[in-house]
Amino acid sequence: MIYVDKRILGTLKIVFVICFCILLVEVLYLTYVSFFREKKSIYFDGINAVEINKNNDYVTVGSNNNNDMHYEKAKITKYNAKKERIFETLYNKGFNGAFFDVTIDDGDYIAVGSYEATEEEHEKGIREALFVKYDNNGKVIFDKSFKALDDSKFVGVEVIDDGYLVVGQSIYNNMTLGLSEKGGAYLVKLDKVGNIVWKSNYGGNKAAIYNDVVVYDNYIYVTGRDSSRIGLLNKYDMDGNLVKSAGYEYTDSLGFTSMVVLDDGIVVSGAKKSVDEKNNSIVDALLVKYDFDCNYINEVSYDDLGIERFNRVIKDKNNNLLVVGNKVSSDTSDTSILYNGIIGKYKSDLTSIKIDNYGEQADDHFTDVLLLGDNYLVVGYGSYEDGSYLGKFIVYSDALKILEVQ
Question: What is this structure's pTM?
Answer without folding.
Answer: 0.88
